[in-house]
Structures are given as structure tokens and as C-alpha cells.
């Protein structure tokens, strides 16, 4: 017997929450769905594949001031929202936050990111219908994976099954009326697992494979920006009208000139940068830390957003190819 | 039609006339298309050509300036080729142009294929490439409607304040991925002005104001050079109607200078020339 | 609009003609509104289109570019290029919500102090009528 919350009770509970919290939820922005702050539960979108950008920007903003120095005559801009609720996060994106944690919330840690992570409450909504681009099961997650959220909601006919995963989640839902449900949990067809041996990728894939794949790459920043686990940045200092600011912004390892240090670029060609990206997403971390540490979470946003259809799922499948083009041994 | 393309590709590769044929293949969704680089004869069968082949492949020629390359082009893409040839960015002898007569392509995204023709195809008056070495496809009769810019005039009809708030809303979504620049054959500077640090023209703040600076920079550098393939708009991950900016400039260039980009391979862009006595509606204040 | 609204005007004046013309106005004690902040450039063609946009982004209500009369450019052709460039830019800016009337390109020769002052007065009056630019 599952505990469920009726849809209208969910709406009124969220309305109550709004009085003391900032709620970020998927909302329709034109023909897209994006995570934005809401002023009423009616603004929440439920029927969509996945959002155009992951919610990582609410923890790791597109542009962030690291240091600001001024004459002291301006109020400092608040950089951390105190009571933050992310509603409607999918299991893949929640797993993505744990990947970002390894870079930004370990040792050393990013102070602002860590504060946001510690204060935010994640209310996940399980996927009822994985999209054609999804492959979370290949990367160790699942449409109903509740391991990285505080509360998981699963849609059924008469409402949502509520699973309070953490103490934070239990406390938040302490006074919410729940009822016992007759409805069975929904049957969701998980995405098929792609067979691949990515752990041995660094030895097995020939240079020519990356050069052919990168031929059509436009070296834009789309894949890095839509990805829930990418965290590369560039930093610049600005000095205007008495204020000095160090600004850190998202950047992409696919951009020309990325890692140009002292006049030398470490990954000068598109092929080098492409190989770096896929090694970073697939074998690098698993090689060093063991399986379960892949940095790709299988959300498939890069697949839908890449203008020239560079598809990470094909790269995973290609590790099993016998074509001599791909093999270096 | 695809059979002719494949046969020509095989002939060119086998004879060594080119080292690569750039065309289209089926994308990973099994529905739409994506660019394909054919280096070996065994990959020729992957080539396709149909109404999902919307990409402008001419950009890739700029990475292969010294390598003889064959390319499959639609009429709009061929105009981009003309612009690059006119600007001496490509050696004509290194490009073998497989031109395709094109009735139009449909709107596509990953795993999405529309029924309607793309907006630019609906107003197209050039169904045969203006430049080619080998022509494929049935001749298509040209409709002769006047060139229309109704999407531009619609926005022009609104008040300045409405236009300002329209664009502020669009540019608020811009994530400065630069896909619009990277897909455009007309954008080929080795150091793009937007990435110049000294001076820094546009900061890396993602505000609508900075984003507007970037888009003015991009559109203006293409003034008189843009051929309207609308790739910039297609690749935008947040659907900003970028073609409106380019088409507005196309409309003005046509009205003021009676010029359309890409019709000949030796034309000079209007901003690179002038006429001494022309009247452009500016600089005519009298006391 | 507040009765004491003073438009902020930026002027790019070419060194050889229009800057000299402004200088003559000053020497001859011909007054013109003080709203204009003048930047001296070698030629009207030196003015990059992005300078204009930047001025508006930084709070200018109007931008003026002044050069030599067509045919008299100190560098022979600069003002012809400027004329084409700014004819297009003005249209694009208007399309983006920055009205045409806020951006002027005009010609002032080195001896035309009076013309310069009347030009700036006319421009400033127009901008006062239009009100501040709503960003």
C-alpha cells in the first residue's frame, strides 16, 4: 500500500510552501520547458520529455561573481537563496548534481555551490515515459531512481505516490495529508541499456575514430551548456566605475582555444577536444574511481540539442564495434 | 537523384579527383539527416538526399581549403559558396560542386520532422543552384513572387517599445553557445570579435543587454553577405528567431543597394563598396 | 516625462572637419546645448557600429556621428563607407527598439560652426521631445 497525495492537495501544499520558500520548477517558456522560479503551482509544467537546460544553473549559475570589491556604497547582491526548493527534478538530473558534487562539493569545495546544495530541498518527479533520447539505465540510474532526491513523487491515477527519502524530505512533508492508495505503481518501460565497454575506451579507440566523429562538430558550446554534469568555466576580471569583479562563466571544452595556456593549446584540433569530452564523460572517472562514477547520466539532452547529431549513445555502442577504423589494436 | 549523387561521388573518389565528399546521411533518430564525410568508397551507400537535408554544409569547406573536396549543395547553400569564393576564402579548383535542384526542406529537429516546408523555402525563388560542376535533380520551375519579408514587416509594424521588449525577452534566453556563429559559413574569422579580450567588446555576462551586443555584432558582420539559409535559427538551442535580424538587414540591403548576396562568385559585398552620389536616407539634415 | 529631463548625447566627430567645426563654434561663442559629450575620431569611418550600440547600452539617449561632407573626406572615401554602414545600422537599431531618430549621421565642415550648433540643438530638441530611451 503506497501513501499518496491527491493532485489538488499537492497544489495547495506547494502554495503554502511558496510563502516561505523559493520554488524552482519546470515552466513553459515559449515552446520549451525550463526550470524557473514560480509564483503559483499552476505555472508548473508536468507533461514534457525533459527541460531544455538542466537545473544545474540554480546551483552553478551561468555567470557568477566570485569576488566583488567596491566602495562599500552598494548593497551586496545575495548569491545564495536561503530556502530553496527544486520541484520536478528528474532522477537523471538529480544524479547529475552528485557528479557536480565531486568537483565542487568535495575537497576543495566551491563555497557558493556547497551552500546552495546544503540548503536546497529536491522534490523529484519520476519519469512516466522516458523519451527516445533517454539512456539513464546505461549510466546507472533509472526512471524511478530516488537515491539522490529528498522526496520522490510518482504519478498515479489519483495523485502522486510519496516517498520521503531523507530526513529533510520527511520534515518538509510532516503535516501534509496523505492517504493510502489502491492504485498500483505505474509500469514504466525503462530505456534499453546500450552495450558498451567504455572502461577500456582509452586503449581501444583509434585516433581516426575521433577525427571522423569530430568532422561535423561545429565547436559550439551547446553540449556542455545543456549537460547536467559539465562544469568547465572561464574567468574574467572587470573593473568599471569603482567596482572590481571577478566573473566566472560557463565555458565548453569543445570551444577553439580551450585550455590555451601560455600560448600553447593542449587540445588543438576538434578531434582532440571531442576525444577529451567523451573520455571525460565515460572512462576517465570510472578508470580512476571504479564503475558507478561515470559522469554522464544518460539524460540525452546533448543528443537532442546537437545541431549535427553527434550522439554519445553511438559512441558507447561503437566501443563494441569490430570495425578496424575504430580499433587501435 | 540519390543514385546520381552516389555514382558521381564514387567516380570522384576512385579517380582521386577529391579526397572527401561532404553530403548527408540518416541521423541517429532514423528520421532526419546529419552531415556525412565520405573518405572511402565503402561509405558512399550511406549518402542520402531528401526533404530532411536542411543543413548548410558549406561551412566545412573552410576546414579543407587545401584539400580537393566535393560537396552536395542546395541552391541556398550554393549561394553561400559564391560568397566565400567572392571573398577569396576558397580555391575554386579545390571544390567540386554537386548541385541539387531543391523543392524545399521541412522543419526538422532531433526526432522531429514537420509536414510544412521551412519558412525560407516557402518564399524561395531559386530552386536551381547558381553555381555547380554537376547538377542533379529535375528542373524546377521558378515561381516569380516578389521577395517577401512579411516576418520582418510584421515586427516593424509594432511600436519601438514593443520591439524593445520583444527582443529583451528573446535575448534573456540566449546562453551564448555561439552555435549560430559556428554553423554560419559567413562567420570564419580566426579570432571572433566577441572573444577578443583587448579590447573586450562584449562581456561574458549573460544579460539581455550584453546578448543584444553579441547579436548586433553577428548580424551586422553578415550584412550584405547573409544568404538566408537560416541555419543560425535552426541550431539555436533556445529558439531565438535569429533569422529576423538577418532578414531585416537583407531587406534593407536590397532596398538601399539593390543587392542580393551569393548570386555570383565575384560580387563585392555592399559594405565594401560605395557610390558617390547615392541617397540612402541618412545624412540629409538641413537647417 | 520630467520637465528637467536632459538627454545624454554622445557625439563622434571626425578630427578634420566636424571636430574643427565644433571648435569654430566654440571660438566664435556660438552656443549649443551642453548635453553632447564629444569623442574625437580621425574619420567618421573609424566609428565601429558597436560603439553606437555600446553608447546606448551605457545610457545614452542619442548618438551623433559627424563627418566631412561627401566628396571632402580627408581620407578620400571614409565618409562614403560610413554612410552605407550607418544607413544599415540605423535600420537594424530601429528594428531592435532603438528609434531611428536617436541616431544621426551628419556632415559638418571645418568652417561650419553655426551649422554644428544648429545641428546639435535640433538633435537635442528632438531627443528632449522623445524622452529617455526606455531600456
In short:
The complex is a heterotrimer of chains A (329), B (287) and C (135). Helices cover 27% and strands 22% of the residues of chain A.
Explain this structure.
The complex is a heterotrimer of chains A (329), B (287) and C (135). With 329 residues, chain A is α+β, with helices and mostly antiparallel strands. Chain A has two domains: 180 residues, no CATH class; 121 residues, no CATH class. Chain A contains eleven helices and 13 strands. In chain A, helix 6 packs across helix 8. The model of chain A has no long low-confidence stretch (mean pLDDT 89). Chain B is α/β, with parallel strands linked by helices and 287 residues long. Chain B has two domains: 135 residues, no CATH class; 123 residues, no CATH class. Helices cover 31% and strands 13% of the residues of chain B. Chain B contains nine helices and seven strands, in the order H-E-E-E-H-E-E-E-H-E-H-H-H-H-H-H. The radius of gyration of chain B is 20 Å and the shape is globular. Chain B starts with a helix and ends in a 30-residue tail after the last helix. Chain C has 135 residues and is of the alpha/beta class. Chain C has a single domain, classed as Rossmann fold. In chain C, strand 3, helix 3 and strand 4 form a beta-alpha-beta unit. The longest helix of chain C is centred in the middle third of the chain and has 18 residues. The two termini of chain C are 15 Å apart. Chains B and C meet through helix 4, helix 5, helix 7 and helix 9 of B and helix 2, helix 3, strand 4 and helix 4 of C.
Amino acid at each position: 500500500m503506497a501513501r499518496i497525495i491527491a493532485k489538488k492537495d499537492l497544489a495547495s501544499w506547494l502554495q503554502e510552501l511558496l510563502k516561505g520558500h523559493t520554488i524552482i520548477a519546470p515552466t513553459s517558456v515559449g515552446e520549451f520547458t525550463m526550470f524557473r522560479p514560480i509564483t503559483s503551482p499552476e505555472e508548473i509544467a508536468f507533461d514534457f520529455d525533459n527541460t531544455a537546460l538542466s537545473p544545474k544553473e540554480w546551483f552553478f549559475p551561468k555567470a557568477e561573481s566570485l569576488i566583488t570589491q567596491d566602495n562599500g556604497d552598494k548593497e551586496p547582491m545575495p548569491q545564495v537563496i536561503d530556502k530553496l526548493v527544486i520541484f520536478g527534478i528528474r532522477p537523471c538530473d538529480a544524479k547529475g548534481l552528485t557528479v557536480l558534487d565531486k568537483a565542487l562539493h568535495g575537497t576543495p569545495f566551491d563555497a557558493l555551490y556547497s551552500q546552495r546544495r546544503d540548503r536546497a530541498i529536491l522534490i523529484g518527479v519520476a519519469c512516466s515515459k522516458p523519451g527516445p533520447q533517454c539512456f539513464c539505465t546505461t549510466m546507472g540510474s533509472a526512471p524511478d531512481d530516488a537515491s539522490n532526491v529528498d522526496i520522490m513523487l510518482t504519478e498515479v491515477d489519483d495523485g502522486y505516490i510519496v516517498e520521503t527519502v531523507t530526513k529533510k524530505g520527511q520534515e518538509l512533508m510532516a503535516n501534509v495529508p496523505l492517504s493510502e492508495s489502491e492504485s498500483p505503481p505505474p509500469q514504466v518501460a525503462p530505456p534499453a541499456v546500450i552495450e558498451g565497454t567504455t572502461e577500456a575506451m582509452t586503449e581501444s579507440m583509434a585516433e581516426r575514430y575521433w577525427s571522423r566523429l569530430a568532422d561535423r562538430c561545429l565547436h559550439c558550446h551547446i553540449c556542455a551548456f545543456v549537460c547536467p554534469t559539465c562544469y568547465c568555466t572561464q574567468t574574467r576580471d572587470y573593473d568599471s566605475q569603482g567596482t572590481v569583479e571577478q566573473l566566472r562563466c560557463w565555458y565548453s571544452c569543445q570551444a577553439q582555444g580551450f585550455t590555451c595556456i601560455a600560448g600553447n593549446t593542449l587540445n588543438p584540433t576538434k578531434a582532440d577536444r571531442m576525444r577529451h569530452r567523451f573520455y571525460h564523460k565515460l572512462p576517465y572517472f570510472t578508470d580512476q574511481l571504479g564503475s558507478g562514477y561515470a559522469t554522464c547520466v544518460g539524460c540525452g539532452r546533448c543528443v537532442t540539442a546537437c545541431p549535427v547529431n553527434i550522439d554519445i549513445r553511438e559512441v558507447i555502442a561503437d566501443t563494441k564495434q569490430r570495425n578496424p577504423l575504430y580499433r587501435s589494436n | 537523384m540519390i543514385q546520381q549523387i552516389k555514382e558521381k561521388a564514387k567516380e570522384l573518389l576512385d579517380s582521386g579527383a577529391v579526397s572527401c565528399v561532404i553530403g548527408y546521411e540518416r541521423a541517429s533518430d532514423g528520421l532526419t539527416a546529419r552531415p556525412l564525410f565520405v573518405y572511402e568508397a565503402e561509405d558512399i551507400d550511406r549518402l542520402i538526399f531528401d526533404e530532411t537535408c536542411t543543413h548548410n554544409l558549406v561551412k566545412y569547406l573552410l576546414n579543407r581549403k587545401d584539400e580537393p573536396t566535393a560537396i552536395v549543395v542546395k541552391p541556398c547553400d550554393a549561394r553561400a559558396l559564391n560568397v566565400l569564393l567572392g571573398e577569396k576564402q576558397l580555391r575554386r579548383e579545390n571544390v567540386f560542386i554537386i548541385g541539387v535542384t531543391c523543392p524545399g526542406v521541412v522543419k526538422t529537429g532531433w526526432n522531429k520532422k514537420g509536414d510544412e516546408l521551412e519558412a525560407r523555402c516557402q518564399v524561395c525563388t531559386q530552386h536551381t543552384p547558381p553555381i555547380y560542376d554537376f547538377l542533379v535533380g529535375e528542373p524546377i520551375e521558378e515561381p516569380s513572387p516578389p521577395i517577401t519579408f512579411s516576418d520582418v514587416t510584421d515586427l516593424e509594424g509594432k511600436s519601438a517599445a514593443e520591439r524593445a521588449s520583444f527582443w529583451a525577452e528573446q535575448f534573456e534566453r540566449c546562453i551564448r553557445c555561439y552555435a549560430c556563429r559556428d554553423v554560419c559559413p559567413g562567420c570564419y574569422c580566426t579570432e571572433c570579435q566577441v572573444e577578443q579580450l583587448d579590447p573586450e567588446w562584449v562581456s561574458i555576462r549573460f544579460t539581455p543587454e550584453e546578448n543584444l551586443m553579441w547579436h548586433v555584432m553577428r548580424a551586422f558582420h553578415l550584412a550584405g553577405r547573409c544568404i538566408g539559409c537560416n541555419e543560425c535559427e535552426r541550431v539555436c538551442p533556445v529558439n531565438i528567431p535569429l533569422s529576423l535580424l538577418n532578414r531585416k538587414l537583407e531587406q534593407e540591403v536590397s532596398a538601399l543597394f539593390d543587392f542580393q548576396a551569393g548570386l555570383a562568385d565575384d560580387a563585392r559585398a555592399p559594405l565594401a563598396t560605395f557610390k558617390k552620389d547615392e541617397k540612402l536616407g541618412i545624412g540629409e539634415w538641413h537647417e | 516625462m520630467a520637465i528637467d529631463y536632459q538627454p545624454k548625447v554622445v557625439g563622434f566627430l571626425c578630427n578634420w572637419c566636424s571636430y574643427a567645426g565644433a571648435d569654430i563654434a566654440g571660438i566664435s561663442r556660438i552656443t549649443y546645448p551642453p548635453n553632447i559629450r564629444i569623442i574625437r575620431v580621425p574619420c567618421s569611418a573609424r566609428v565601429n557600429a558597436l560603439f553606437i550600440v555600446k553608447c546606448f547600452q551605457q545610457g545614452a539617449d542619442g548618438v551623433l556621428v559627424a563627418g566631412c561632407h561627401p566628396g571632402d573626406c580627408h581620407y578620400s572615401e571614409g565618409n562614403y563607407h560610413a554612410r552605407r554602414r550607418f544607413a544599415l545600422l540605423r535600420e537594424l537599431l530601429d528594428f531592435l527598439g532603438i528609434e531611428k531618430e536617436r541616431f544621426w549621421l551628419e556632415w559638418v565642415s571645418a568652417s561650419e560652426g553655426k551649422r554644428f550648433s544648429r545641428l546639435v540643438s535640433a538633435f537635442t530638441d528632438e531627443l528632449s521631445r522623445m524622452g529617455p530611451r526606455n531600456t
